[in-house]
Amino acid sequence: MKNIWKMMAATIVSATLLVGCGSSKTAEAEGDQLARIQQKGEIVIAMEGTWAPWTYHNEQGDLVGFDTEVGEQIAKKLGVKATFVEGEWDGLFAGLDAGRYDIIINGVEYTDERAEKYDFTEPYAYIHTALITTENNTDITSFEDLAGRTTANSISSTYMTLAEEYGATVEGVDSLDETMQMVMSGRVDATLNADVSFYDYYNVHQDCGLKVVATTEDASNVVIPTLKGNESAALREAINQALQELREDGTLSELSQKYFNADISGK
Questions:
Q1: What's the pLDDT score for residue 267?
Q2: How many CB atoms lie under 10 A from the CB of residue 129?
Q3: What is the mean pLDDT of the chain?
């Protein structure tokens, strides 16, 4: 009888320890975004899917682009699958806030205002802002000439903010193609956009009748936003490690050349 009670007691202790371990792992996952991602085997990445060459659909309808491949490479380094969810620019951050996405990879530039609400990885690319107008426009030759003019830009983007700082009125757009069409048609006077995005567009549309009249001297840091705080700290550290490896083995440079015909992975 004593042996039976001993066996029962040992069983109860073992079960308690197993439950305790499970609870510990669950609690760890609940407080650690990276642990949750790795348990699920999937990282959910938000992007527009309409901004070539960063993230867009090719003629076959496949989601491709510099950021798409960067996301895939990061997922491989983390040992999980990359799941991409597309949405309009101004909804990407709302989705991150709501927990629908784990990160955003969409050519996001670092700003002090964004840093108040989000934490960021180390930069993985650097871009200059270009002022673009029609070839026959002689009134706009510098950013200062935007005062009293109209531009086409994505709502809440850094380009919209900069255009407004120079006194322009901004018309909201959803894609690079729409932006360029609005400038070409004369519906707006100009647009501010990434220099590399314009050059990629120009390579395909050399008869578009557009030109770059000015670029910023300083380069913007392209980063990956995450939720703010310790919960996402391990995830940021893991992504930074992945980006460092991708930089050292030349992957970032190769992807830059593939999509931009230039290396934007360094200043």
A1: 77
A2: 21
A3: 89
* Peptide bond before residue 53 is cis, with ω within 30 degrees of 0: yes
In 3D space, the residue among 38, 254, 197, 228 whose CA is nearest the CA of residue 120 turns out to be 228
pLDDT surpassing 70 at residue 26: no
- Asked if the model's pLDDT at residue 43 lies above 60, the reply is yes
Per CATH, the homologous superfamily of domain 33-126+221-260 is Periplasmic binding protein-like II (3.40.190.10)
Tokens 């990160």: give the residue: 103
What is the predicted pLDDT for the residue at 130? Answer: 95
Rounded Cα distance, 120 and 141, in Å = 34
Give mean pLDDT, residues 235-256. Answer: 98
Provide CATH code, domain 129-217.
Answer: 3.40.190.10
Separation of alpha carbons 168 and 157, rounded Å: 14
The residue to which tokens 């060459």 are assigned: 53
Short-list 12, 92, 9, CA closest to 55: 92
Q: Strand ranges (DSSP E) for the chain?
A: 42-47, 56-57, 63-64, 81-86, 103-104, 118-120, 125-127, 129-134, 150-154, 169-173, 191-194, 210-215, 220-222, 225-227
Average pLDDT in the 55-77 region?
A: 97
Residues in the chain: 267
Question: Is residue 21 predicted with pLDDT exceeding 70?
Answer: no
* 129-217 matches 33-126+221-260 in CATH topology: yes
Q: What angle do CA 86, 92, 93 make, to 5 degrees?
A: 160
| pLDDT bracket for residue 121 (50, 70, 90) | very high
- Per-domain residue ranges for the chain? 33-126+221-260, 129-217
